[in-house]
Design a protein that fits this description.
- InterPro entries: APOBEC/CMP_deaminase_Zn-bd, CMP_dCMP_dom, Cyd/dCyd_deaminase_Zn-bd, Cyt/Deoxycyt_deaminase, Cytidine_deaminase-like.
- This protein has two domains: 162 residues, 3-Layer(aba) Sandwich (Cytidine Deaminase, domain 2), CATH 3.40.140.10; 116 residues, 3-Layer(aba) Sandwich (Cytidine Deaminase, domain 2), CATH 3.40.140.
- Helices cover 31% and strands 21% of the residues.
- It contains ten helices and eleven strands.
- Strands 1-3-2-4-5-6 form a six-stranded mixed β-sheet. A five-stranded mixed β-sheet has the order 7-11-10-8-9.
- Strand 10, helix 10 and strand 11 form a beta-alpha-beta unit.
- The chain starts with a helix and ends with a strand.
- Bound molecules: zinc ion.
- The site of zinc ion (ZN) has 6 residues, from helix 6.
């Protein structure tokens, strides 16, 4: 049973007031960059106690901080979203997200803030997404992206002035089951597949990230690794969608993670990019090239395909 819109709206009215000072926002932004866009349970408890807030009040108060991660050179429309998710240990975590746009490339390549937050939760081991707080109403594309989640039937969407269920915003929805797909984003168990003939030098985390891709429609288990000179590696995985277009490519997924560290994508920071995909289902090379073409001096690009053993 989902909470009714009326109840959610009442809750919103009760929670409307708190906002962080500029100084507090700056401190939180600095902490989040170091924690790669995640507020852990211990941080959430500390902030709730310090400011006398409920978890939901804190979630909403953090949304303007999520917007600070936005990279929006085209629209200058800075969207923030935060998923309240539960990790494998049963702890509540906030997974931040923001929109990412690419200049001189098709608008269809942008990453939406809601995708970014859900991707952050998914890649970092959340087992479920309970709520998502967003700075602005989710577009139709994002409503469809959220409908791929295993918690789509109970997902709460918190906007600054009003709360909804996903069902309120996406009635008579088209979803995974309409294509005969019984799994959903974040419901799948760990992959038992392997790649064959892959070099021993290939990064283990990249292989694991590819095998954990959500690819019920094409079977292209694929992932991207962004290596930096001084700030470690960032990984992204392919997340497909029943309506196809809202699917998130592995490079978009990795870039979205990269930007949640507050880094800028330039040749002083990024050393190389590696795309790994499944030999007989590959479909990501041209998308990756298109996205990378939007950067000045794109980094070294390595492309690996490997056969999948099911
Ligand atoms: Zn959207």
């Amino acid at each position: 049973m989902t909470a009714s819109s009326k109840e959610l709206s009442q809750e919103a009215l009760n929670l409307a007031s708190f906002s962080f000072s500029l100084e507090q926002k700056t401190a939180l932004f600095t902490q989040l960059k170091q924690q790669r866009g995640i507020l852990f349970q211990r941080d959430i408890i500390a902030l709730c106690n310090e400011h006398k807030l409920t978890e939901t009040q804190l979630l909403k108060a953090c949304v303007p901080v999520a917007s600070l991660f936005s990279v929006a050179p085209i629209s200058q429309f800075y969207v923030g979203a935060i998923v309240l998710g539960i990790n494998q240990q049963g702890e509540t975590q906030f997974y931040f997200g923001a929109n990412v746009e690419f200049t001189h490339q098709a608008l269809s390549l942008v990453v939406h803030a809601e995708q970014s937050a859900i991707n952050n939760a998914w890649l970092n081991g959340a087992k479920s997404v309970i709520k998502i707080a967003i700075s602005d109403a989710p577009c139709g594309y994002c409503r469809q992206f959220m409908n791929e989640l295993d918690t789509a039937d109970s997902l709460e969407i918190l906007l600054p002035e009003k709360h909804f269920s996903l069902h309120d915003l996406l009635p008579n929805a088209f979803g995974p089951k309409d294509l005969g797909n019984e799994i959903s984003l974040m419901s799948q168990s760990a992959s038992t597949h392997q790649f064959s003939g892959i070099s021993n030098a290939c990064d283990e985390t990249l292989i694991k990230t590819a095998l954990n891709a959500y690819v019920p429609y094409t079977g292209n288990f694929s992932a991207v690794k962004i290596s930096t000179y001084q700030d470690g590696d960032f990984y992204g995985s392919y997340a497909e969608n029943a309506a196809y277009s809202p699917s998130l490519s592995p490079l978009q997924s990795a870039l979205s993670q990269f930007y949640l560290s507050g880094l800028s994508f330039d040749d002083q920071t990024v050393k190389s990019i590696t795309l790994l995909e499944t030999e007989d289902a590959k479909n990501q090379l041209e998308v990756a090239k298109a996205v990378l073409a939007s950067f000045e001096n794109p980094p070294a690009f390595e492309y690996i395909t490997a056969a999948l053993i099911k």
